[in-house]
Write a structure and sequence with these properties.
This protein has 181 residues and is an alpha/beta fold. The protein has a single domain, classed as Response regulator (Rossmann fold, 3-Layer(aba) Sandwich), CATH 3.40.50. It is 28% helix and 29% strand. It is built from six helices and eleven strands. A nine-stranded mixed β-sheet has the order 3-4-2-5-6-7-8-10-11. A two-stranded antiparallel ribbon has the order 1-9. Helix 4 links the parallel strand 5 and strand 6. Helix 2 packs across helix 3. It is globular. The two termini are 20 Å apart. The C terminus is likely disordered.
């Protein structure tokens, strides 16, 4: 199913459609990532995708994935203000508009079981886990496996195979070593 999403073209699409496709990716990422035992509250039965309340494409993200069922859990979008703690977030999406504060945000969740997904060119180097980018008219993604490992998240081999590249770097100013498929 993720392969179908990957084949969607964004060339003639609006920004709204681009973010609907990215929301579909986020939904599928949740299906292909395993959080450490006890991270997802068994009684709550929800998964929280956090975005900042000033996110320009929040409506597209909310409308596409709010309330979607993933296994036995329901995916909810949680809005954060700039001062709000990221505690309780399972996924954190940082758009290119968060570039100026991205490094600080990623440092604040380093080693926490929060899947970080973003769009800036420096996202993986700053310690993010999954980076969206355009390849011609298609949305692609790269993965920082070391970032996920540091947060005790397990990314499935299927998702790793679908990535344009997989990097093994801890980010946050530490040396880099990587490979691409």
């Amino acid at each position: 199913m993720l392969g179908c999403v990957m084949s969607q073209s964004v060339d003639a699409q609006s920004a709204a459609e681009e973010y609907q496709v990215k929301a579909a990716f986020l939904f599928h990422f949740v299906q292909l990532v395993e959080w450490p035992a006890g991270t997802l509250d068994a009684s709550d039965r929800s998964i929280s995708l956090c975005i900042f309340d000033d996110e320009p494409h929040r409506r597209e993200l909310e409308n596409t994935i709010e309330g979607k069922v993933v296994g036995m859990r329901v995916l909810h979008v949680r809005l954060l203000d700039q001062r709000q703690d990221i505690q309780g977030c399972n996924i954190l999406f940082l758009s290119r508009d968060e570039g100026r504060r991205q490094a600080a945000i990623l440092r604040s969740v380093h080693d926490l079981p929060v899947l970080t997904v973003g769009e800036t060119d420096t996202f993986l180097a700053d310690g993010g886990m999954i980076h969206f980018h355009l390849d011609g008219d298609k949305i692609r993604f790269d993965i920082n496996a070391a970032g996920a490992d540091a947060s005790h998240l397990r990314i499935s081999a299927r998702l790793l195979l679908l990535a344009t590249s997989v990097t093994h770097t801890t980010g946050i100013g530490v040396g880099k070593e990587g490979y691409a498929h």
